[in-house]
Amino acid sequence: MNLKRPFEALASDLEPELGSAKVFRIYNDVRFAKGKPPYKTHGSVVFEDRRGLVYYVHLEKDHLFVATGMHAMLPDQVRRFLDAAIDPKHGARLANVVANAEARGLEIGGEALKTVARGYPKDHPNARFLRHKGLTTSARYELAPWMHEPAAVEHVRDVFTRGAEVNDWLVTHVGRSEEGARWVKR
After folding, report:
1. pLDDT in tens, 114-163
2. What is the total count of domains within the chain?
3. Has residue 186 been placed in a domain?
4. Do the Cβ atoms of 96 and 166 come closer than 8 Å?
5. Does 178 reside within a domain?
6. CA-CA distance, 45 to 21, in Å (whole number)?
7. Higher pLDDT, 29 or 84
8. Which of 123, 125, 140, 185 measures 20 to 30 Å from 63, CA to CA?
9. CA-to-CA distance for 27 and 70, rounded, in angstroms?
10. Are 26 and 11 in contact (CB under 8 A)?
């Protein structure tokens, strides 16, 4: 199954509202890994807007995965995120917007440490977030007929809409990295 054209079409449909897109190649880098297959078993595209938010779509043979947020923040972003998470006012708002996203059926993810980041209190009410080096909202859909139709774009937009409150918090309190774009080079 050729995934390049559908992902290019999705990128074309969503770039005006989400920002620059990058369709990932289907080839694995097999130079340094023995036994790695030459092709990936999925197709994916990532969008990155000027505020530092990322929108990701991943399609495999049995599911569609859609995520948005700041997956793997750069060091300056992590510092701002952690400082805002322990702030009484901003941290309470973070807990509230994350709870709202979970109530809307979204999973919370992002790159995370095994324990609370060094220098932050392990018993803090927001200790859950003090492990994060990224924060995303996502949804996974099992294989369905709509995934191969134009209606798939609306399902993707729906996940992004349900995650907008978390994204707004991230833009306000974390923002774009001082190092510039991470995923999509302009």
Report:
1. 999 999 999 999 999 999 999 999 999 998 777 777 788 889 999 999 99
2. 1
3. no
4. no
5. no
6. 7
7. 84
8. 185
9. 25
10. no
Q: What is the pTM (predicted TM-score) of this model?
A: 0.87
| CA proximity to 109, closest of 83, 85, 140, 82 | 140
Tell me the pLDDT tens digit for each residue of 16-47. 999 889 988 777 676 777 787 767 777 889 99
Count CB atoms within 10 A of the CB of residue 3.
17
Note the pLDDT tens digit of each residue in 92-118.
999 999 999 999 999 999 988 999 999
Instruction: Read off the DSSP letter of residue 110.
Output: -
What range does the domain containing 27 cover? 4-173
In a domain, 185, yes or no: no
DSSP secondary structure code for residue 123 in this structure: T
Question: Considering the domain boundaries, does residue 33 fall inside one?
Answer: yes
